[in-house]
Design goal:
single chain; alpha/beta; Rossmann fold; binds magnesium ion; binds zinc ion
Amino acid sequence: MKRALFLDRDGVINRRIVGGYVRSWEEFELLPGITETLPAMHAAGWFTVLVTNQRGIALGQMSERDLLEIHERMQQELRRQCGHELDAIYYCPHEKGDACGCRKPQPGMLLDAARDNEINLSASWMIGDSESDIEAGRGAGCGTIRIADADEPTAADHHVRSLLEAWSLIAGFV
Ligand SMILES: [Mg+2]
Ligand SMILES: [Zn+2]
């Protein structure tokens, strides 16, 4: 069984567009943190899984093909910058009211990833910048780390300011 780091995308891997969606590669801006930490995550034996809500597809702001292209370019860019890419990518293209089971705060994407990749959820972590990420992580039985600037109230096990800090925390536990 693998242990995984489930990573939210917007606000963790790349800069979040407040009030909008990243609809093309031109709008995708890697945040500092992932290229510095991904090689270390892999070296320590963590399986890395992107879990992202992409409701912009349901809203018709982009196509599923646009999203797949963004993710392909993201993986290329990660490989180019740090020699590593994310091990798996799961996304929810649905609308809030769709009751799909995969849209965070539902834990569906984490449960699917665990089934597909033999992941031990209780030995895994969900890292995200929204409380819905934390809820999904808790629902799947993972440890949870919230990345946020301000001291917002959170149900997460830990609260940090950056992905770098989240990784320091995890690396210090094992
Ligand atoms: Mg986010
Ligand atoms: Zn969904």
